[in-house]
């Protein structure tokens, strides 16, 4: 399926806004922009880029010390893009922190 260029441009705008928020440590704002980008990439038919956005959301939740939520998004990224090594890395990071938390209980 080919991706509509105008659709991808709008998704890219949200992605870049998310990146800008991330660089300013505005993680909650970045989450919202990456989610918007991911949903738009989905409607554009770009599953690869949608999966990348879920990986970014996973990272933002790790930055907010929310590993359980991070794990949900990392799993989504892995399921959508099983060859994406960064998605597996995000999942491993989240699992490590979830296991640390469980070990403290």
UniProtKB/TrEMBL annotation:
<dbReference type="InterPro" id="IPR019734">
    <property type="entry name" value="TPR_rpt"/>
</dbReference>
<dbReference type="InterPro" id="IPR050754">
    <property type="entry name" value="FKBP4/5/8-like"/>
</dbReference>
<keyword id="KW-0346">Stress response</keyword>
<dbReference type="InterPro" id="IPR011990">
    <property type="entry name" value="TPR-like_helical_dom_sf"/>
</dbReference>
<protein>
    <submittedName>
        <fullName>Heat shock protein sti1 homolog</fullName>
    </submittedName>
</protein>
């Amino acid at each position: 399926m080919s991706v509509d260029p105008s659709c991808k441009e709008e998704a890219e705008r949200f992605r870049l806004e998310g990146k800008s928020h991330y660089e300013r440590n505005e993680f909650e704002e970045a989450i919202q922009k990456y989610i918007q980008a991911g949903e738009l990439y989905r409607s554009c038919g770009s599953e690869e880029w949608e999966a990348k956005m879920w990986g970014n959301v996973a990272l933002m939740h790790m930055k907010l010390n929310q590993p359980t939520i991070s794990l949900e998004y990392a799993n989504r990224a892995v399921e959508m893009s099983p060859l994406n090594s960064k998605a597996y890395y995000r999942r491993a990071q989240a699992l490590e922190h979830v296991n640390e938390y469980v070990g403290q209980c």
